[in-house]
Recover the amino acids of this structure.
């Protein structure tokens, strides 16, 4: 990818070189090839923070296996509305990627997406009851009608042999399996999207450049002060629209903008670690993403999972995450990120969240204090025959959960992602974490709706070519869902899985 300096004036500035900015950049370029687009990334390369494959689980989040998206209600029934929302969002991403593959914008799909079954796995009679009810509820909807359920050890062993190695034959187990799941290398995908943009004369990519300030000037445009970290000089960029997609750094940049919509938001950073196995004899015996139930007090992104990962064509096995606490908002950030984000407008929400989340605090303390044996014991819940010498510990990326004002509680800790946009749509920031990357296209369509509403009518036909279900409901139209999914899966090399 060519490295260039910033342009003094742009139509669009995208802050952050991850999957979100890359997706919005390609969408906008496809819709209007004349737009001058500037991407600013603080690191020396794009896709090295949350989009990096070693910093995320790489699950194509479609709610096929993640139990935190299907809550059990007081009456024992299972709520699946969040699962339906996430599944549809991921299908939008697949449609867009398939379109880009067909046009030659993206390379061969096996470089960034691989068929990997998604499984949910629980232990104990009570959990069996929950998982069976969950399966019955989900399988009644066309999004999940291919999902299988079993309590039979021999069947589960066939699906994922490591789960049964060394396990007591009498132990009550249950699992679901969705053969249509995927592993996604968001780092490779982001790099390909950015490389495509970099080949365009109207697009500039400035790596090793950090946005230091964002101010609205009298001319109505946003003026950004950008530090060239290689030359230690400041640059200035003016643009009528700015998207802040800088992961954990989005909150401080949103605060610098001064828009009233950004007041009251805080951030709660959570770090993560994974156990990694590269032993081919073990890796080849497992081909699935297996998600379990979260511990009491654990944030949803800390749901334990034993994952097949495909990174740069090589299979590996990952288990975790083990949560921890760091005041940094990015893996490459500063220990002053959290204290530096405190404002009068978010102090009350942040204090309220601290008071109301004692279980989370206790959980994080326990996680930080874990020994290698403690991590092995957690792994053995999934793989009883595991041996510590076969695994290495890897520190993954930082995630910053949203803290926002609440009329009743003062403040709440919100999991997921949220778009914060100015009333006039001239600036938007993406806060939060999982399922993030998998829903990038859906999130960016929301950005278009909030920030480019006047242009949407003229873009409608083009959007429908890129995303065939645009403006329609896959959730309510089984025939449309099957039609667009089959086409996208075929173009992405996922058909028949």
């Amino acid at each position: 990818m060519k490295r260039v300096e910033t342009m003094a004036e742009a139509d669009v500035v995208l802050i952050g070189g991850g999957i979100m900015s890359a997706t919005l950049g390609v969408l906008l370029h496809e819709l209007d090839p004349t737009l001058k687009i500037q991407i600013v990334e603080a690191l020396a390369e794009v896709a090295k923070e949350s989009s990096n494959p070693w910093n995320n689980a790489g699950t194509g989040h479609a709610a096929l296996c993640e139990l935190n998206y299907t809550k059990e209600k007081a009456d024992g029934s299972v709520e699946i509305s969040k699962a339906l929302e996430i599944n549809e969002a991921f299908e939008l991403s697949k449609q867009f990627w398939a379109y880009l593959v067909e046009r030659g914008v993206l390379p061969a799909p096996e470089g960034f997406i691989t068929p990997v079954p998604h499984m949910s796995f629980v232990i104990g009679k009570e959990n069996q009851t929950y998982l069976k009810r969950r399966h019955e509820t989900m399988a009644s909807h066309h999004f999940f009608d291919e999902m299988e359920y079993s309590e039979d050890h021999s069947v589960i062993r066939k699906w994922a042999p490591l789960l049964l190695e060394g396990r007591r034959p009498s132990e009550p187990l249950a699992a679901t399996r969705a053969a249509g799941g995927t592993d996604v290398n968001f780092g490779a995908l982001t790099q390909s999207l950015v490389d495509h943009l970099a080949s365009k004369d109207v697009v500039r990519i400035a790596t090793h450049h950090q946005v230091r300030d964002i101010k609205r000037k009298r001319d109505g445009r946003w003026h950004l002060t950008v530090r060239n970290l290689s030359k230690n000089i400041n640059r200035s960029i003016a643009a009528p629209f700015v998207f802040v997609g800088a992961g954990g750094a989005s909150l401080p940049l949103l605060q610098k903008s001064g828009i009233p919509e950004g007041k009251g938001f805080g951030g709660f950073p959570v770090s993560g670690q994974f156990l990694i196995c590269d032993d081919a004899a073990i890796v080849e015996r497992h081909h699935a993403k297996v998600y379990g139930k979260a511990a009491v007090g654990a944030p949803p992104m800390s749901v334990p999972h034993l994952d097949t990962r495909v990174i740069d064509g090589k299979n590996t096995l990952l288990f975790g995450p083990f949560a921890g606490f760091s005041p940094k908002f990015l893996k490459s950030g500063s220990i002053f990120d959290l204290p530096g984000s405190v404002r009068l407008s978010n102090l009350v929400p942040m204090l309220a969240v601290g008071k109301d989340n004692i279980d989370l605090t206790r959980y994080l303390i326990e996680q930080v204090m874990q020994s290698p044996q403690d991590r092995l014991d957690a792994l053995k819940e999934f793989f009883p025959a595991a041996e510590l010498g076969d695994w290495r510990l890897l520190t993954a990326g930082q995630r910053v959960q949203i803290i926002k004002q609440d009329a009743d509680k003062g403040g709440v800790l919100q999991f997921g992602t949220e778009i914060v946009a100015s009333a006039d749509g001239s600036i938007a920031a993406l806060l939060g974490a999982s399922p993030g990357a998998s829903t990038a296209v859906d999130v960016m369509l929301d950005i278009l709706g909030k920030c480019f509403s006047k242009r949407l009518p003229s873009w409608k036909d083009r959007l429908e070519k890129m995303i065939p279900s645009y403006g329609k409901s896959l959730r309510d139209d089984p025939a449309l869902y099957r039609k667009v999914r089959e086409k996208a899966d075929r173009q992405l090399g996922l058909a028949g899985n």
User: Anything to note?
Assistant: Residues 81-103 form the longest helix (23 residues). The radius of gyration is 22 Å. Residues 264 and 345 are 5 Å apart (CA to CA).
